[in-house]
Amino acid sequence: MAAIKEVTVKELNPQEFIKDKAQEILRAVGSGIAINALSGGVDSSVVTMLGHKALGDRLKTYFIDNGIMREGEPEQIASVFKKLGVNVEIVNARDEFFNALKGIIDPEEKREAITQTFYKKVFGNLVKKSEAKYLLQGTILTDVDETIAGIKRQHNVFEQLGIDPQQAFGYKIIEPLVQLRKDGVRKVAEALALPSSIYNRMPFPGPALSARVIGEATSERIAVVRKATSIVEEELASTKAFQYMAILHQDRATGMRQGKRDFGMQIEVRCWDSIDARQARPTRLGFDVLDKLASRITSEVPGVVSVTYNITTKPPSTMEAV
Ligand code: XMP
Questions:
Q1: 29, exposed or middle or buried, with CB in 10 Å at 0-12, 13-18, 19+?
Q2: Long-range CB contacts (< 8 A, 24+ apart) of 194-200?
Q3: Which of 104, 164, 231, 270 meets the CB 3.0–4.6 Å disulfide criterion with 310?
Q4: Which residues contact 81 (CB under 8 A, 6 or more apart)?
Q5: How far is the CA of 258 from the centre of ligand 1 (A)?
Q6: Pocket test for ligand 1, best of 142, 154, 182, 244 (most atoms within 8 A of CB)
Q7: CA atoms of 49 and 40, how far apart (whole Å)
Q8: How far is the CA of 139 from the centre of ligand 1 (A)?
Q9: Are 248 and 212 in contact (CB under 8 A)?
Q10: Where are the beta strands (DSSP E) in the chain?
């Protein structure tokens, strides 16, 4: 396995990078068909635009609605790309994902269940239907690093784990962004004329909200963390922090409502300052902001009786909880 040569943000010439990668994609796919999954994150958005530049209509772009995305996300993203002239087909795969996540508590098993459902089941079917032989995807160098280091098995990294996608899933994977880190990808996104709502978009993990539910990710528990996430994103948008999130804990805590005991759920809020996600510090949020979060989450998300703010740095914490 050849080592990947990093292109730092200082070395990066976005226009040249775009030209080179579009050529590479065209060379690899030839006159065939490729598919890609768009999640709306900056990585998959850049890959979508690069792929359409290289292949035009021969790239089929899908948004996989896995049931664990944020509020209104599939429709929002499809509409942004429609304005850019890219047709995005939304695929409803919610049942497949919730069935695969049933009963799973262990974080790595959760990631593995999502990987298998995504790459084998859902994508396997789409590949058969579309007759594509290639999958374009937005793996970046940090994903590879963390997988190799055994910190978190990123759901989109295979080669470094000794998995041959052709053998395992029946198609080849092309990764045009694997030499870049997040800051480099953002520069390329800007150069591709993606809207700032996309290139300044906060990172969001591949396993989506299931990475923010400690314990089993049922549709009910995902709904709780989805509601809390909307509140956290609304309240913390003005901080311009690298990433902020709500996490649903597995343990319950004793609270009280209307004078009665309520053994309720706990939401943890995290808000990170970081450059490239390798290291991070908690943002020094004002207490008034924290107060507002606690009061909105406990009154707007049914069943939540406790809200905490995480004050740990990465390392030893990681940014996501799962
Ligand atoms: P951690 O939790 O590893 O997160 O400190 C670092 C950055 O990576 C994102 N992240 C993921 N992204 N698949 C992804 O595509 C994953 O499995 C995954 N886990 C974490 C996380 O949101 C943060 O920006």
A1: buried
A2: 194/42, 194/45, 194/46, 194/49, 194/84, 195/80, 197/80, 198/40, 198/42, 198/45, 198/80, 199/42, 199/45
A3: 270
A4: 38, 45, 48, 61, 87, 88
A5: 39
A6: 154
A7: 11
A8: 11
A9: yes
A10: 34-37, 59-65, 88-92, 134-136, 172-174, 243-248, 253-257, 260-273, 281-282, 304-309
- The pLDDT assigned to 1 comes to 58
Strands 34-37 and 134-136: parallel
Atom 11 in ligand 1: residue holding the nearest Cα: 205
The residues lining ligand 1, judged by C-beta closer than 6 Å to any ligand atom, are 111, 146, 152, 154-155, 203, 205-207, 211, 243, 277, 314, 318-320
pLDDT of residue 296: 98
Type of residue found at 162: G
Residues in the chain with pLDDT values less than 70: 1-2, 155
What six digits make up the tokens of 179? 């030499």
Locate the ligand 1 atom nearest the alpha carbon of residue 245 and give its number.
22
pLDDT for 95-147, tens place per residue? 999 999 999 999 999 999 999 999 889 988 898 888 899 999 999 998 898 88
Cα 110 to averaged position of ligand 1 atoms, centre (Å):
14
* Tokens 């300044």, residue located: 200
Q: Residue with the nearest Cα to atom 8 of ligand 1?
A: 205
pLDDT value for 166: 87
Distance from the alpha carbon of residue 268 to the mean position of ligand 1, in angstroms? 17
